[in-house]
Design brief:
- It comes from Clathrospora elynae.
- This is Di-copper centre-containing protein.
- Pfam families: Tyrosinase.
- Keywords: Metal-binding, Oxidoreductase.
- GO terms for molecular function: metal ion binding; oxidoreductase activity.
- Helix content is 26%, strand content 8%.
- The chain is α+β, with helices and mostly antiparallel strands.
- The chain has a domain of 168 residues: Di-copper center containing domain from catechol oxidase (di-copper center containing domain from catechol oxidase, Orthogonal Bundle).
- The protein has a two-stranded antiparallel sheet. The chain has a two-stranded antiparallel sheet with strand order 2-3.
- The chain starts with a helix and ends in a 17-residue tail after the last strand.
- The mean pLDDT is 96.
- The protein binds copper (II) ion.
- Copper (II) ion binds next to helix 6.
Length: 260
């Protein structure tokens, strides 16, 4: 997130910061938010409404924990600054059934297309004040915090997935390619802010703490991660590798930020 924020500052003279999307404020009406209202200062809004669609299995058809009914869009975003934006990578694991396949099996071939969104009140309803407060006050350690934040279960998307699926669509519903929709960065800035808020309830015990293995959902099985494991950004971005320990405090280098 920090590297993403740095890039327009370093390359384009942007003086601002990366704003967060405060889900609870718009949980009952995401389309009413300044971020997603489709206006000139938004990041574009809903997709064009496509009638007659079925529900979507979230997180995926093999684990159909929630049947999310079709939302208020479904097609290409048709107003605001990203109206003509092209998504080029993927799809890799999209839940949207109308996306043309990528010419390369790894999903990294050129596949230019519009951004599709399907704003979903069912999904945003799991990012309410009640949900976020319960996450922050009810998670005694980082393991509990992670599970409550991001492990869906039958009938429940949880806050992280609820926030992602608030826009759904393409690339938003694609586990691996969701950063191709700019919404990702505003959503994940809020994830970072909620984690930071949780940390600050007990900085002594929560600033440097970690749980889980090196692989997502431990597949394939790997050892537990440690604070000394290194995070890489790839050489092409020009950011130094840092350890998880170095990345665990927002008030240490290279970050130095707080949330307002
Ligand atoms: Cu995410």
């Amino acid at each position: 997130m920090w590297a993403y924020e740095q890039t327009p500052r370093n390359e384009c003279g942007y003086k601002g910061y990366l704003p967060y999307y405060n889900w609870p404020q718009w949980a009952d009406n995401p389309k009413g938010s300044p971020l997603l209202d489709g206006g000139e200062r938004s990041i574009s809004g809903d997709g064009k409404y496509v009638p007659g669609r079925n529900y979507t299995c979230v997180p995926n058809p093999n684990r159909c924990f929630v049947q999310v009914e079709a939302g208020s869009g479904g097609g290409c975003v048709n107003s605001g600054p990203f109206k003509k934006w092209q998504v080029n990578l993927g799809p890799i694991s999209t839940l949207n059934t109308t996306v043309p396949l990528n010419p390369s099996p790894d999903g990294l071939g050129y596949n230019a297309r519009c951004i599709k969104r399907d704003l979903s009140k069912r999904s945003s309803s799991e990012t309410s004040d009640k949900d976020v407060t319960a996450l922050i006050t009810g998670s005694a350690n980082i393991s509990a915090f992670q599970s409550t934040l991001q492990n869906p279960e039958p009938g429940k998307l949880r806050v992280h997935l609820g926030g992602h699926n608030t826009i759904g669509g393409d690339a938003g519903s694609d586990f691996y390619n969701s950063p191709s929709d700019p919404y990702f960065w505003f959503h994940h800035a809020q994830i970072d802010r909620v984690w930071w808020t949780w940390q600050n309830q007990n900085l002594k015990d929560r600033r440097l703490t970690i749980a889980g293995t090196l692989t997502f959902q431990n597949a394939p099985p790997t050892r537990n991660a440690t604070l000394d494991d290194v995070m890489t950004m790839g050489d092409y971005l020009g950011f130094k590798n840092i350890t998880i320990k170095e990345a665990s405090s927002t008030l240490a280098g290279p970050f130095y930020y707080i949330y307002e």
